[in-house]
Amino acid sequence: MLKHTNRKQETVRRVRTLFLSAESVAEIINRKGIAECIAGVAAYIEEDFLRWNDFDKCARVANHSDVGVIELMPVADARTYAFKYVNGHPANHRYNLPTVMAFGVLADVETGTPDLVSELTLTTAIRTAAMSAVAARALARPDSKTMALIGNGAQSEFQALAFHHLLGIETFHLFDIDANTTDKLVANLTRLGLKTRRFSDTRKAVKGCDIVTTVTADKTNATILTPDMIEPGMHINGVGGDCPGKTELHADVLRQGPVFCEFEPQSRIEGDMQQMPADFPVTELWQVLSGEKVGRSYADQVTIYDSVGFALEDYSALRYMRDVAAELKMTETISLIPTLANPKNLFGFIADHRDAQGPVLAAVALAA
């Protein structure tokens, strides 16, 4: 009882919320190094997936429009609640905006106090790449050296770096229908010392590759990969299909090997497996990581990771960024919750700040 009382007293005193802006997260990445950040988030994800049953989980809440989707992604354990606000608008480049924009929160379950508010656009790019690498380490052949990247947009550099640093991928085969986007990726990866080869279509790009990552943005039922492109031993990392009506893999690709996902109830609605019947077999990745289920059974087996992104990964990424910010002594805060001498006198907070709220109180007085 004393432990809880002390914690509540501490929460009352701590009414300011740690804030990590986009600039702050960029500073963290630059100070720690992007390879270390990806590896750190991957380690936090594995740690949290290994205690999968500790979490209260649900599929994300999505509001769809003709041009995109806006989603809320919640998850919680007994101590911490997290959520992410995220959009997906493939045509945002017309407005010089990212296709995906996000922010997130960590809050104290005991009191509901928001402990952290953070950007999640940059962090989501890192966590998505880290999650891909976590899955591939469990599912791909351990001697994999070549990966095809189909879709060379904002996520592609992060995927390449994750697979290079965490799996030892040496060469990247690149294709995008937008040649300028591939130019961008080639320039960035070359500057980082990574080997690239660009191709004129998907079929040529995936030929001979150990791993194929699809990370396209269009909100459509596409068939980026068809069964005749799949070779024995390939690991398919399907990242771009992440909402109803958006797929990247031909249905018969999913029949070529075991399919793995994050949270099955969400993945059946949003992933490439939305094309499959309700009894189509699938394994949640945490079961492989914990040793409850088998991942790859033999070298020539095709494995498919149908990734849609799950709230637990954002929980892990937010925890990592919070911990690194503390390590680097980054302490910017914002005031989201009023400090109240009497928690039943919320109106009194306005009176205590009448210099700023004078016109409001004056209007109330005049009305009286």
From TrEMBL:
TM ranges: none
Top-rank taxon: Bacteria
Alphabetical list of SUPFAM superfamilies matching this protein: NAD(P)-binding Rossmann-fold domains
Organism: Candidatus Accumulibacter proximus
The protein, known as: Ornithine cyclodeaminase
Pfam families associated with the record: OCD_Mu_crystall
Family matches, as NCBIfam families: PRK07589.1 (NF005762)
